Amino acid sequence: xxxxxxxxxxxVRHLRVEFPTRxxxxxxxxxxxxxxxxxxxLGVVGESGAGKSLTGAAIIGLLEPPGRIAGGEILLEGQRxxxxxxxxxxxxxxxxxxxxxxxxxxxxxxxxTIGRQLTETIQTHLPVGAEEARQRAIRLLQETGIQxxxxxxxxxxxxxxxxxxxxxxxxxxxxxxxxLIVADEPTTALDVSIQAQIIALLKRLCKDHGAAVMLVTHxxxxxxxxxxxxxxxxxxxxxxIGPVHEVINQPSHPYTVGLMGSIPxxxxxxxxxxxxxxxxPRLNAIPAxxxxxxxxxxxxxxxxxxxxxxxxxxxxxxxxxxxxQGHAP
Amino acid sequence: MTALVEVTDLAKTFEVSAPxxxxxxxxxxxxxxxxxxxVSFSIQPGRTLALVGxxxxxxxxxxxxxxxxxxxxxxxxxxxxxxxxxxQGAELRTLRRRMQMIFQDPFxxxxxxxxxxxxxxxxxxxxxxxxxxxxxxxxxGELLRSVGLAAxxxxxxxxxxxxxxxxxxxIARALAxxxxxxxxxxxxxxxDVSVQAQVLNIMKDxxxxxxxxxxxxxxxxxxxxHVADEVGVMYLGRLVELSPKRELFSAPRHPYTRMLLDAIxxxxxxxxxxxxxxxxxPNPLSPPAxxxxxxxxxxxxxxCSSERPQLKAIQGIQVACHAVEEGRI
Lengths: 329, 329
Hints:
The complex is a heterodimer.
Chain A: E1 10-21, E2 24-36, E3 41-45, H1 52-59, E4 68-76, E5 79-80, H2 86-92, E6 97-100, H3 114-125, H4 130-143, H5 149-152, H6 162-174, E7 180-184, H7 192-209, E8 212-217, H8 220-226, E9 229-234, E10 237-243, H9 244-249, H10 254-261, H11 301-305, E11 311-312, E12 317-318, H12 321-325
Parallel strand pairs in A: 3-8, 3-9, 6-7, 7-8
Antiparallel strand pairs in A: 1-2, 1-4, 4-5, 9-10, 10-12, 11-12
Helix pairs in contact in A: 3-4, 4-6, 6-7
Chain B: E1 5-15, H1 20-26, E2 32-43, E3 48-52, H2 59-67, E4 74-79, E5 82-83, H3 89-98, E6 99-102, H4 116-126, H5 133-146, H6 163-175, E7 181-185, H7 193-210, E8 213-218, H8 221-227, E9 230-235, E10 238-244, H9 245-250, H10 255-263, H11 302-306, E11 312-314, E12 317-319, H12 322-325
Parallel strand pairs in B: 3-8, 3-9, 6-7, 7-8
Antiparallel strand pairs in B: 1-2, 1-4, 4-5, 9-10, 10-12, 11-12
Helix pairs in contact in B: 4-5, 4-6, 5-6, 6-7
């Protein structure tokens, strides 16, 4: 945890993202705050619609209109990046923040060779000549474990398998030596055996290149293996955040407790899985107070009236009134 | 006890050739994919057999062959002692009533223009199982309640439900004809973990109450471990290991099974270093000679690359591997 003491690489403060619609404004992210230290791997986990991908998109400045940042700040190495004009943000994307998306086929251009896409990225962001860019690109491909990199350099994305394509995407994300990689479900489209390879690769390369990672995924297993800290998102808010081991083994928020209990475990037999009844609220019907209160087994009056902020719990920080009352689960 | 479902040497070949004109003009050969290639297993009444494997291993094809959505290219399926290929007419209708299927995507498997009432009543009408509209209404309400929904939900349309609720509607529809055998093709893969837990719990409860027999197709080994009694592991259209759940998870025999088990991230083992297996699943159009797994197998020798191993009972577990048979591993 020594990394945490240095100045944070990325700071997200009270981020709000909203979508104006004809039926009213939907608040998709509501007061999200967290930090990522240099070289740290932060996991962002949650169910569909919790806002985890949106958080990533807001950081790299790729929110789909009409979505917009309605409040809060995003700071990269102390500099605000949430209000930059398009051209300035473009210079940061790829150079200082790299991105990896879920589907490797749609993040590569099918009409250009892998080599062209890599050298273009390198030359856009770094002052190097064509030959040096080529050498760098081939070295990156070799680092990602692509065999016969010089031949494959000339090939098109369709000539690669899914796992190989994701390796190319990782090489692209690292091409300009960014300080931060935002990886949005990088292994969800892959088979388990390939997933293990890609996760190991991502972890090793980011460590070698000194890049911090914000890893967005719904897979708790991937989080457990890869991350230093994890933030659990629920209905556009951070429910709990803390070191990964503590969040998994000593969760304080009832949602985290339920989420962990509902995952079938490999090392124990249970006749039934713990289940959280109901489903996450839609954005147009987020309940007052704590967003989790209609599904919470330990709900009491205050939860329905007042919204809890993150507060120090046993081993983590949790947004739950039970923690404030001192009788957490 | 006799098996409810008995599958012998089942195979399905799909033609993937170029169009006739291209074949004639360009001299291209006809091409076939052996999606399922000689699979045999049996399921006892009231038990759950799970088939696991990566994309393209043929597990969904087996499911579709079993319920008759595909005709087998070779081999036979016996249901309750009868060969399903020879059954015709009224007997075939009875057979259809006794086996039902639940599909992966609850957004694609329910007609968006039909009310839930009509969706669940269709199999009842099709098989002439209800005498009057009144009985039908009661029956649909009862089915909805059995999967944890309200009887009043029968008036709604599928889009008014979440993914987990839709999957419950699919289960209610499958249960309408009071089948003995349910084929579940990745029933929870499209769902979030907390919702997956709800659906898995319902499926287990229903099995206990009604004595249902399941064929459960999944790529998620943790889910399989939770629901299955026996597990079959498939690789490129063939079963490589078939054994009781406990043996498979505590002492996997086939190198591919070992690799799959090693590839799953474990949420309670934070920071565990795994050694991901190299390589990817080969192209099913030109599978390797001998054992299909030999290019990725750490124990492969000359025999593995030339002679295809058969599924054999070794110490009570069925496994298709030369190395296990010779006692090398």
